[in-house]
Amino acid sequence: MLESIRKRKNSIVIVLAFAAIILVFVFWGVGPSGNKKTGDYAAATIDGEQISMREYGDMYKRHVDYYKSMFKEQFSDELAKKMNLKQKAIEVLINRKLAIRDAAAKGIDVTEAELQDAIKKVDAFKKDGAFDMETYRRVLEANRMKTAEFEKSMRDDLLYSKIQDKITKDVTVSDADAKEAFIKDNRKYEYDYVAVDPEALKKTATVSDEEAKEYLKKNGSAFMEPLRVNAFWAKADISAFEKKVSVTDAEIKEYYGKNQRQFERPASVAARHILIKPDPKTKDPKAAKEAAKAKAEEILKKIKAGADFAALAKKNSGDTASAVKGGDLGWFPRGMMVKPFEEAAFSLRKGEVSGVVESDFGFHVIKVYDRKEAETAPLAEVAVQIKSLVTKEKAWKLASEAALALDKPFRDAKTADELKKAASSRGFASGETGLFSEADKKVEFASVDALREGVFPLHKGDVSKPLQTPLAFYVVKVIEREDPRVQDYAKAAPAIKTKLVDEKADAEAKKKAEEILKKAATSDLAAIAKAEKLKAEPTGPFSKLQPFIQKLSFYAGDKPNFFEATKEKPLYPEVVKAGKRYAVLKLKSAQEANLADFDKTKDRLKQELLAKKQNDAVEAWVKALREKAKVEVFTDKL
Length: 638
Hints:
The chain is α+β, with helices and mostly antiparallel strands. It contains 23 helices and 23 strands. The strands form 8 sheets. It has a 4-stranded antiparallel sheet with strand order 18-5-22-21. A 4-stranded antiparallel sheet has the order 14-7-16-15, sandwiched between helices. The two termini are 43 Å apart.
C-alpha cells in the first residue's frame, strides 16, 4: 500500500466497467460537477442553486452506459426514451442535492478517516485484494476525473448514507408483518381469459387512396426523403506533405529556445521508506498510535547504528507493495506524495535518513538514495523530438495553404474533369461521392463529424473551406443537391396503408374486447367467447411472487388489482394489452398460501420488507424536502 501515500493533484471519473462502483455512480450520482454561474447553463435550479448542464450530461451518460452494459445490443435510443432516462438523470441530481443539503443542516459530516476507509473498500482500486494507490490513480486518470472531484462525490455519498441511516433507524418489521406479506405473495390465482388479436382483423380492414393521401398530408414529416448531396472532393494528406518538408538545425535550435518550458524537468528524489501503521485491532486508537510511533523510532535507531535499510523495510514495513523491494518507491517529483511525507523527503540530501514522519497512513522512516534538481532537458537529448514536431507543423501549414489555394480553381471549374485537373495539378487525391445522406454512415463524408458538418450546409456550386481531419485537409465542391422533401404518394402509399390497416385492426380489436368486458360482468366468459368465435383459456396459476402470465406473455406484478379479485368480484376491471392482443380476464380460482413454508422464508422476507419500508421512508423524506424547496427543471434543455 505504499502507493496509498501517493496523492496526485491532477488525478482524474470512474469507468462504468467497474461493477463494484457503477451503481453508486448511476443511482446516487457520483461524478464531476460543473460550476457555471450563468442561467443559460443550468439544467435545473433548487432555490436558485444550479444543477449545471455538465452535471446533467454526465449523469445522463452514466445512465445510458449502465443500461447499455445491461441490455447490450438490445439497448437503443427508443428504449432510453421509453425508460425516461433523461428525467431519471435530472431527478437523481435534484434528490442528491436536496439530501446533502439536509444532511449539512442537521450537522451530519464525514471525517477524513471515514472517506479514506470508503475509498479503500472500492474493489476497482484494489490490487491483489488490497487498496493500491497506483491503481486508484490510474483508474481516475484513465477516466478524466480529478481526485478532488471524485473524493467530494464520495464524501457526498457517505453523507447520504449517514442521513439515510438516521431516517431509517426506527423502521422495523414484525413477524406478523412478514406473515401477512407471505400470504399475499404466495396466494395463487388463475384466471380465464379471452384474447382478441388485431392480426385476425386485418383481412377485413381496408384503406382507400383518399384516406392514405389525407394521412400523408397530415403526417408528411414521417415520410421524408432526406437531404442528399453529391460532392467532388480533393484530399491533402499530411503524410505526403511531411515528405516535402526539411527542418534545419537552426530551426530546431530556434524551437528549443522559444519552447524551453516544454522540456523542463521538475526536481525529484528517489527514496525508500518503512511504514509502521497503528494496529487496527487495538481497541484504544491512541495506544495503537503510540505503539506504532515507538516501533518506528526503534527501527530508526537500528538504521543509525548501521543496520541495512532495505532489509528492515522488507521485514517491518506495512506498505507491502514497496516492502518486497526493500521499501523502494522509485523516483517521484513534488505533488505525488502526501504533504508530510513530501516535505520530509525533499528536505533530505542524497544518502540521508529522515526522523520519524507522521502521515494519515502511519509513521514513516525515509531514506533518499538519489535526487535530481529541476532542469531543462539539453537540446541534444530532445532534438529528434523537436524535429518531428517542427516537421508536422510545417506539413500542416503547407497542406493548409495548398488546400486554401484550391478555392478559386474549384469555384471556377465547371465540370468534374476540370475539378479533377485542379486537384491533381497540386498532387491531391480526388473523387466524387455520389448522392448520399447523413444517414449513409458507410460514406466517410457522413461518418466523420468535421466532414459532415462542412458539407451538408453547402448549396449546389458552393466550395467548402478546408475541412481538417486528424490526417488530412479536404476541399469539397457540391455538384448536386437534393433538398429534403415529402415522398411521392406512390412511394409512401404501401407503408401508409400498412400502418393504417394496423391502426384500424388494433382499434377494432380493442373495441371488441371492451364489448366482451361489459358482457362478462353478468355473463359466462366461455359462452361469450363462443358466440364471438373466440376461445376462453385458463392463464395457469400465478402469484405476486411469480407474476408473469406465460400464455399471455404478460407481467401482472405492477397491477395490484390482479391480486385482489374475489369470487364475488371475479372480473378484472380493465381490458389488458398483452403484446399486440387485447385480453379480458375473469377469476377462475384462488389457492391460499401454504403456511408450512413460512418459517423457511421468514427471515429473508423480513429483510426484504425492511428494505422496502426503509426505501419508502427515504422516498417520503425526499418528497418532503422537494415540497419545501423551489425546484425548476428546464426540460427544453434536457
